[in-house]
Amino acid sequence: MNRLDAKIKQEFPEEAVYKVPIRYNIFNGKNLPSFIKDWLIKKFTDDNGDLDSENLLRFLEAHIPQKNSAIKSRLRTHREEVTVLTRLIIENDIQHDRLKFSIPDLGIKMNEGRIPDYIARKYPDLRDGEIWGIITLAYIPPDGKEKGMIELVKYRPFKPYSVDVGYFKSARRNFSTQEWIDVLIRSMEYNPNGFKSLQQKIQFLSRLLVFVEPKLNLIELAPKGTGKSYIFSNLSKYGWVISGGVVTRAKLFYDIQKKSAGIITMYDFVAMDEVQTIKFSNPDELKGALKSYLEFGSCTVAGTKISSTAGMILLGNIPLSVNKLPLDKKYFSTLPEFFRESALLDRFHGFIEGWQLPRIKENLKASGYALNVEYFSEILHYLRDDSSYNAVVSELLDVPKSSDTRDTTAIIKLTTGYLKLLFPHIENVDEINKDEFKNFCLDMAIEKRSIIREQTHIIDNEFGTEMPDIKMKNF
What are phi and psi of 387, to 5 degrees? Predict the structure, then answer.
C-alpha cells in the first residue's frame, strides 16, 4: 500500500474500494456498469481487503440474473415473487393509462411489465427512462379483461450511499492538488501512473465536466480506444448514452403523440456516442429545438415548454497523422452534416482534444484504493446544484464589458466545472491558490472555448477568432 492508498483509505474508510483488476473478472458475462460492480466488490470485501468471491457469486446468481435465468418461468409457472437488483426502462402509456416497464437483461418486454399506480405515486423517480433499483416482481394472470402481466410489486431505488457532501469537501482538504487529481482518475477506474503528464491528466478529467456542471455542452473527438464511451456509459446512472440509431425531436425533447417529455429532461447529461453513425429524423425541426435548448436550457414543442439542466456531449472519432495530430485542420468536418452549422456549433461551450489522451492499455486500469464509483457518481450529481462555486468564480474573474456573451458564458461554466472537480472544498476566494486556479481552471476553460471559436471561424468567417480578455482579478 503506497502513501496515496493509505490516505484514501484513511479519509474515506466507508466510501473507498480496493481495486485489483483481476478481481473484476468475476463479473465476466454479466452486463453490469461500474457503479454496480464497485458496490458489490465493496459489499463482499472485508476490512483486510480480502474478497469473499464465493458469496459474491451467490449474490450475483440470486439477485442479478441474466436472460437465461428462467425468471419468467419462476414468475408464471411457479407463481414465485422474485426480487432482483436490475436495470429497468420505464415508459408512460398514455393510451392505456398505465406505467409500463421492460427489463432487457431479463428478456421482459415493454408490453409484458406494468407498475401499479400506488407504487408509481410513492416513488417519483419511477418515470420515463432508465433506472436501477431493487425490485420485486409478481405474475398477474389474465382475468378476462386484462391479459397476463408481470407486475412490479415492490421497489427500492439503488442509492446505497447517503451522501454527505460536507464530509467529502472536508476530506478533500487533506490531499494536495496533485494527489487529488490522482484520486479522481482512480475513481474513474484508471491508473494515474499511466499518464505522461499533469496536463494529460487534466485533459482526461475534462470528461467529467458534464457530470458536475449543469447545462454544459461539449464536443470530444478522439481516436478509437481512448475510453470515451466507457466513461459515459459506466460511471453514472444519471447519464444517458445514445449509440447510433435515429434521433428524433420526440425522443430527445417531447413526444407530441404520447404527451411525454424526452430523455433530455431525465438525466444530468446526454452523450451522443459514435456521433458519425447517428441519423437525425426531420433535421430542421430537431435542429431548431436543439439550438434553443443549447442556448437557454429550454425549447418549445407544440406549445409545450421543455426545460432541463442536462448537458450534452458529442463523442466522435477523428483520423490522425503519424504524428498523432488531426489529418484535417477542420475538426468538425468529421461530424455528421447535421452538426456542421456554425450557429449550432457555437452553442457548444468547449472542445476536448481527445487525441492528447493515451490509448487504453492494461497499465491504465486502476489498481489500489479509489472512491467507490457509485459513491463518486452521487457526489458528482450533488455538486451540480451547488451554486457557491459560481459565486467564487465570479468573484475571481475580471470580465470585460465588451466580451462576447457566449464566450463569457462558456468560460465561466467550464471554469466552474473545473473548480468543482479539483477544489470542491473551496468556500471563498481566500481559500484557493490563485496560481492553481488560473492554471487548472481558467486557462483550461479558455483553451477549450478557443477551439470552438477557431473551428466555427473556419466554417463561417462571420465568427471571428478573437477571444475576450477574461483574466484573474488582482488581489
Answer: -80, -5
Q: CATH fold of 71-157, please?
A: OB fold (Dihydrolipoamide Acetyltransferase, E2P) (2.40.50)
pLDDT means per 10 residues, the chain with 475 residues, are: 92 90 83 86 83 90 75 88 90 86 89 93 84 92 88 88 89 98 96 95 98 98 90 92 93 89 94 95 94 96 95 95 92 93 96 95 90 93 95 96 96 98 96 96 98 96 92 88
Q: Are 314 and 275 in contact (CB under 8 A)?
A: yes
Letter for the amino acid at 175?
F
Instruction: Write out the CATH class of domain 210-362.
Output: alpha beta
Between strands 311-317 and 269-273, the pairing is parallel
E-state strands within 224-383: 239-243, 246-247, 254-255, 260-261, 269-273, 279-280, 298-301, 304-307, 311-317, 350-353, 368-371
- What is the rounded CA–CA span in Å between residue 369 and residue 7? 9
Q: Which three cell numbers stand for residue 134?
A: 431493487
CB 369 within 8 A of CB 13: no
| 38 SS3 class | helix
What is the domain partition of the chain in residue ranges?
71-157, 210-362
Residue 64: per-residue pLDDT: 82
Place of cell 454496480: 36
H/E run at residue 73: helix 71-76
Rg of the chain over CA atoms, in angstroms?
Answer: 23
Residue with cell 467529502: 168
Angstrom distance (rounded) from CA 448 to CA 86: 38
Say if strands 298-301 and 304-307 run parallel, antiparallel, or are unpaired.
antiparallel
**Residue recorded with cell 439550438:** 291
Burial 141-165 (b: 16+ CB within 10 A, else e): eeeeeeeebbbbbebeebeeeebee
d(CA 442, CA 146): 60
Q: What is the pLDDT of residue 450?
A: 98
